[in-house]
Amino acid sequence: xxxxxxxxxxxxxxxxxxxxxxxxxxxxxxxxxxxxxxxxxxxxxxxxxxxxxxxxxxxxxxxxxxxxxxxxxxxxxxxxxxxxxxxxxxxxxxxxxxxxxxxxxxxxxxxxxxxxxxxxxxxxxxxxxxxxxxxxxxxxxxxxxxxxxxxxxxxxxxxxxxxxxxx
Length: 167
Known about the structure:
This protein has helices at residues 19-24, 43-49, 66-73, 92-101, and strands at 4-12, 29-36, 53-56, 80-85, 110-115, 118-119, 122-123, 130-137, 141-142, 164-165. By secondary structure, the chain is α/β, with parallel strands linked by helices. The chain has a single domain (4-156), classed as Spore Coat Polysaccharide Biosynthesis Protein SpsA, Chain A, CATH 3.90.550. The strands form three sheets. Strands 3-2-1-4-8-5 form a six-stranded mixed β-sheet, sandwiched between helices. The protein has a two-stranded antiparallel ribbon with strand order 6-7. Strand 1 (4-12), helix 1 (19-24) and strand 2 (29-36) form a beta-alpha-beta unit. The termini are far apart. The mean pLDDT is 92.
């Protein structure tokens, strides 16, 4: 079966406990890039074991932040990008659905992906569900500049900002 023509971008920092499970679930995708914020654990070493392209990222304290920097800077091979956090594991059901979606050219700008929280091996059935615009066409969407540089705790990542249509 051929690889899904999507570039998966995994942003990391000190994720050695999670990165193996994350990357092993992504083998069906055509390109996997790990963008690491100078981890001081084995995150980068483990990523390379999975043959993921591994890029070091150093935030300069300004915009663009990490995700938009990736879209602006990296050698991304496909128009469609799938953002996956290192502590997420993409299920076979999700991969099957994505593969089916991309059997034809897609006019959409992006797709929301619903996740399930798992605690100590048990799927949590109550509370909020994770729903994020994680599968995007990089030519149609971008991460907005949000004036948060002077807010404590807001760092290099766009936080929970959803991408918006390019102007």
